[in-house]
Amino acid sequence: MSHPISRSVRRKDAVDKAAGKCMYLSDLYPSAPLYGRCFYSSIARGRIVSRKLPPLPEGYWIVGASDIPGKNSLHMLIEDWPVFADTHVRYLGQIIYLVVGPDKQKILEILEAIEVEYEEETPCYTLEESAALVGGAQHGEDNVYTRYDINLGDIVEPFKKAARVLENEYYTGYQEHVYMEPQSMYGEWLDDSFVLHASAQCPYYIRKSLKGALGMDPEKIRVIQTATGGAFGGKEHFPDVLAGPLAVAVYKIRKPVKIVLDRKEDLAYTVKRHPSAVHFRTALDSDGNILAHDIDLRLDGGAFASCSAVVLARAVFTIGNVYNIPHIRVCGRAYCTNKPPSDAFRGFGAPQAVFAMESHMNYLACETGTDPLEYRQPYLFKQGDVTITEGRVHEKVLLPEMTERILEMSGYREKHEEYKNIPGKGIGLSYFLHGCGFTGNGERDLIKARIYLKKNEEDRVFIYGSNVEMGQGLMTTFCKVASRALDIPFDQVEYVQPDTAVVPDSGPTVASRSISVVGFLVQKAAEKLKDQWVSGQAQEIIQDYEPPEGLVEWDQDALKGDAYPAYSWGINVIEVEVDPVTCEVDTKGVWGVYDVGVPIDRQIVEGQINGGMVQALGYSHLEKLECRNGRFSQATMADYIIPTSMDFPSTQSDILDNPFEYGAFGAKGAGEMVFDGAAPAFTAAVSQAVDAVIDEIPVLPETIMELTDEGQ
Amino acid sequence: MVEFYYPETLNEALELRSRTGALPLTGGTDLMVRYENWSSLPPRFPGSIMALKQLNELHYIREEDDCLCIGGATAMNRILEDPRIPEALALALDEIAAPSLRNLASLAGNIQNASPAADSLPPLIVMDASVRLVSSAGSRDLPVQEFITAPGRTVLQQDELIESVRIPLSFVRQADARQAEKSTIVYRKVGTRKANALSKLSVCFFAHCEDGEVKDIRMALGAVAATVVRLQKAEEKLKGISCGELETVWKSVKRDFEKAVRPIDDQRSTAFYRKRTALRLLDDFISRLQDQPSA
After folding, report:
1. Chain B partners of A262 at a C-beta cutoff of 8 Å?
2. Structural domain span for residue B117
3. How many domains does chain B have?
4. Are residues A392 and A453 in the same domain?
5. At what angle do helices A350-367 and A308-318 cross, to 10 degrees?
6. Which residues, other chains included, contact B161 with Cβ-Cβ below 8 Å and sequence gap of 6+?
7. Which residues in A lie closer than 8 A to residue B38 (C-beta atoms)?
8. Among A43, A458, A562, A664, which is disulfide-ready with A552 (CB 3.0 to 4.6 Å)?
9. pLDDT digits (tens, 9 = 90+) for B224-278
10. Structure ipTM
């Protein structure tokens, strides 16, 4: 069924962005009284023993730890990440100083003249080195930022009576966000306040992070979001990291300072997606049926905790994927290593978990001599089933209909059979889900989202919230929701640019929560305004978050209950051909069928589907990012390989209808789920084409050559 | 002090070059990236620079002295559009970066930059192309294979410029032989992605078979050693062989290539992959020749 709200409209930002009129930070402030550039640590781990600073000309500053008015820590989840490295450095690229001045050339000369002497300590670069406490523990006593254990049912008995136990381990690599606009911000001192203009996803996060460092009342810290040219999670916490030094500099100098990272700096020193290693042990009965899983899930968190705990939570809660398995044990850990911190990236732990589970299902199917599609069917979630955290699948599950649809679109069944006898050709499939909104009680207890809806005397309606437009279409979808609920024209509604002095805190722009959680608040507020509507009069509605009813209460200590109120669902099929000489992979077909509740705008959701798919195929196949001795080997856009429009065919997709009671007009999240499934479908296809087990991404021609060519 | 010169004639350019040793810059697509600076600051050139793009004398494609000559400042896209360009070179140029870059980049610049992964080099070396180097004192011609000595190094003297790239017309005429299905040309770029990519390796192979016999065979492999690998002595061993025996003889000749192909691990690929792929591409080429219906 098609809902009227799904009909596409012209996006609010379409013309400005297409015509190049949209003003990004560097357009708003093409020049600045002062520029800032960071002095980064050149080693991965060590003690700073001495510093030699050059004499400074008038009007130049070297700002560092001793200039911080408050605490030398940024406040993300915990406060381990210093604003400036002071006595120790924990990764190559950690900020030690910010050099500030009016002339860029002079700043570069000052940077080159700074001498920092280190006493190097042995760094740990791998999960194994971290667990072995190489060089001594750096976080707590065990280098583990966070550990989450899940015990669903009891795995002891099933493993005792198992006819067979199969095990394997799966690995995923780094990924860089490559937002088109690099990290950009401009800070100034106005009256008695610090004002920051930033390309960022979470204005209130930045304010919270700066509060302790500046030792200032949060009301005196104002964060204004500027048009954001892509983010993908890379502007969730990293803006905190740049805003710290910038704020300290502006606090000291009281003049405007601009920082825009060059692409190479951005590639080298900003946060990346968490690499993962997931070990599965699975107990099978004599017919090959799954009795229980025993899973060890490790994430490489890098040098500071940042939001690794939450990424780990999502990975652990997603590892069961779409399958109802009654006995699962998971030990999930995020480790500290001496590499640039890992952080949020579209999917947020789910792609790593889905890759491991789906690859493992293929492995089990192969080992038991079963067709991978058929092997999955008995375990697919149904409404009312128990989740890995002993919550429930509350919604109707459309997986059978979605399966039928994607088989029909892709011809998977026939091709999978046919390619068994054709070397070099393969087709693969994956199932996946993505929980909408913050994990557990996060929405109710931590975020407590609030929005305002204001109407002026001309009856124009303005939505006030802290969620940002970053290319995903939020200002359009929010306005659609409000205009439809109010039954007024779309053009009569506007979304106010987030500014902490003006908008309430509706939470960060993350976790597939914007439309499903905040969008629902917009709808409720609009319905209230409609009831009270008095034409020609200014009116205001304040709408606070109210948790959905009927959920299984979340217990954060036991990790039990409904981890998410609802899930978005997807199935992908990918078809490939592998060159017999060079092992290059040609992707021949890409299909996706999705349940996003109700698409608020068909074209915007299709944009997410296409973009998410291409980004995920890049992650699966092209985007090799190796960290050697603490430094990323792929240092430029010529060597960090993101896909072009020539690399993959467009995604053939369909969206099934399944309205969510507590989402805006039935909507669930779409931005992340569309990323989650491509990698295992791609590797399954390659695996069939070259007749080898593939348990790691990115799967490059080099990997395939090593798997299939012994070098004779 | 870094100076920027803008000569208006080739003579003026040569005089400047011999006096100042200024670095020649044509399209700038390598130099501007190599010396990239903080945005809005001028590039960090190590010395003075002279622009050559504006010299009309270096923009031409013409036949002279039994060669197809391409002026040193001629942009890759202009070369690509010329119907006289041998297919081997056209195939390579067509896969270099993107059209916008090829509007700026020159073929001579690609040679002088001397990257082991420069895509124009395998076809140029297969065609026995040479460069004409000019200075105020005179000029000399050198085969491209001898001109490049190491990654980033050529024998260009402080007072010299590349006036033109010269491709023997005898090779250009391969097109006629191809129409008679007597010759085979292969260009294969193995890049990091399907478009706008740098090469992991690239190869150019050529063979001319007539009356069931290998008359000519040439194989050049880029990015698998410090400079492009072309083994004329090994090629000689394959000439005069009947097509039916080719695969047998190849087995012993292949060892020469196994020794010469000595790639490295880097941020774009691995030594193992480069070596295996290079040898597999060679094997594939030979077996295709073997399978050819003899004339």
Report:
1. 38-39
2. 4-171
3. 2
4. no
5. 30
6. B10, B13, B14, B17, B24, B52, B72, B133, B134, B135
7. 37, 104, 108, 262
8. A562
9. 999 999 999 999 999 999 999 999 999 999 999 999 999 999 999 999 999 999 9
10. 0.95
